[in-house]
UniProtKB/TrEMBL annotation:
Keywords: Membrane, Transmembrane, Transmembrane helix. Pfam families: TctA. This is DUF112 domain-containing protein. The chain crosses the membrane at residues 37-62, 110-131, 137-155, 162-181, 187-208, 277-300, 320-342, 354-387, 393-414. It comes from Methanorbis rubei.
Length: 416
């Protein structure tokens, strides 16, 4: 008969494997976020606690969150459909795929996520020791930081007038969407309003373009990574720092970190170093998730739906959670490399037909999770999302949908 300790360990292992599986599903299927899976796990926590125990359920939540940050690069690259955390990484990743480097784009993203996880661990310890006493001052300055970042993005753009217009209009839609998020009531309760909002701003315009395109797609080739190791390290560190910072600060997301990483490049966003930016944004995405754990344990801040689900439980030891995150990251890296090999197969499919199927799927998902309000936000966001292509400005300025509400909220100018 198993001892209590052995039973708890088996529960942790089983929970970790379940989390990796669920994170893989949420990463590969467009429109499903890790927060959705975390909400599902919290909703069925009763039977899961009996099966896995508290530590096993916590392991499943953490493993889901970390695994998702690796695997979400696959639909972003192949289909150009964003996850709320990777909206800006979609643009260079999908561009590489359309140039015949889809497998390389996904492998580059996987390396970025892995480097982000490793490089953020020292910051994890440093933040937990130094930042809690300074949290009051940090909270006060967040809005000013976002205001500065948004200003730099617009000033460095090649068309400041149109860039400001897109930023402002998408920002107003973001304020409206988040302010009335309680109307996004779908089949599973209150839905994640960022799903239709960011899908409309970033995903649907790409799908509509794919549906109209009649150009032959290039053959997918992979002969190794075309980014030097020094660039991987430099961009990985840059992304890890950005992701760690927004992982700690309230109101920020990985999408905000990605926007900050692009501040000095917004004027040439479409032609910038796609590989380096992919490493940086992937590192930021994973580091953001890991530092969310630090914020929960150090100051009780729940930075995501996954952390909210974890915070509702008796918290296991921090060292165990970091170990689970490391195991999940290792498995997720290998799975991402495996799925990258399907690039030639995916690109041989009928792309206009595939785009139509994905578009219908995203519409159904928006309705299922957010109801009629979700469809309204999806339509409004799509109308705004097509504007950058018409006026020839980078779609990065649609990030106003996230940056403006957070800025106004932290400056205490609105209440959501």
């Amino acid at each position: 008969m198993l001892s209590r300790q052995d039973s708890d360990m088996l529960g942790v292992i089983a929970g970790c494997l379940v989390g990796v599986f669920l994170g893989t599903v949420s990463g590969l299927v467009p429109g499903i976020h890790s927060n959705t899976i975390a909400g599902f796990l919290a909703g069925v926590s009763g039977p899961l606690l009996i099966l896995f125990g508290v530590e096993g359920l916590a392991a499943a939540i953490v493993a889901t969150m970390v695994t998702h940050t690796f695997l979400d690069a696959v639909p972003s690259t192949f289909l150009g459909v964003p996850d709320p955390d990777t909206v800006l990484a979609v643009l260079p990743a999908h561009r590489l795929c359309l140039a015949g480097h889809g497998e390389e784009a996904i492998r580059t993203s996987a390396i970025g996520s892995a480097s982000g996880f490793i490089l953020c661990l020292p910051l994890f310890i440093l933040f937990m020791i130094l930042l809690p006493p300074l949290q009051e001052y940090i909270d006060w300055g967040i809005g000013l930081v976002i205001l500065l970042a948004a200003g730099l993005l617009i000033v460095y753009s090649r068309s400041p007038g149109w860039s400001l217009a897109v930023f402002a209009v998408s920002g107003v839609l973001g304020v409206f969407s988040l302010g009335y998020a309680h109307f996004s009531f779908g089949m599973f309760g209150i839905g994640e309003v960022l799903l239709p909002l960011l899908t409309g701003l970033f995903g649907v315009p790409v799908l509509l373009s794919s549906m109209k395109s009649s150009l032959p797609l290039p053959t997918q080739n992979f002969s190794g990574l075309l980014i030097p190791r020094n660039d991987i390290l430099a961009n990985g560190l840059r992304g890890a720092v950005a992701g760690a910072v927004v992982g700690w600060l309230p109101g920020f997301s990985s999408g905000t970190a990605n926007a900050l990483l692009a501040v000095r490049r917004s004027s040439d966003f479409e032609s910038m170093d796609a590989r380096g930016y992919l490493v940086a944004t992937s590192a930021a995405n994973t580091a953001n998730a890991v530092l969310g754990i630090a914020a929960l344990y150090a100051i009780g801040r729940m930075r995501s739906g996954a952390m909210a689900a974890l915070g509702a439980m008796d918290l296991p030891s921090l060292s165990l959670m970091i170990l689970i995150a490391a195991v999940a990251a290792t498995i997720a890296y290998l799975l991402t490399i495996f799925f990258s090999r399907f690039a030639p197969l995916v690109m041989r499919l009928n792309q206009p037909l595939l785009a139509k199927i994905v578009l219908v799927f995203l519409i159904v998902m928006s309705f299922a999770f957010c109801g009629p309000f979700g469809l309204f936000i999806l339509l409004a966001a799509t109308l705004i999302g097509v504007i950058p292509g018409l006026v020839n400005v980078p779609r990065i300025f649609c990030m106003g949908a996230i940056m403006l509400p957070v800025m106004l909220l932290t400056l205490d100018l609105i209440r959501l």
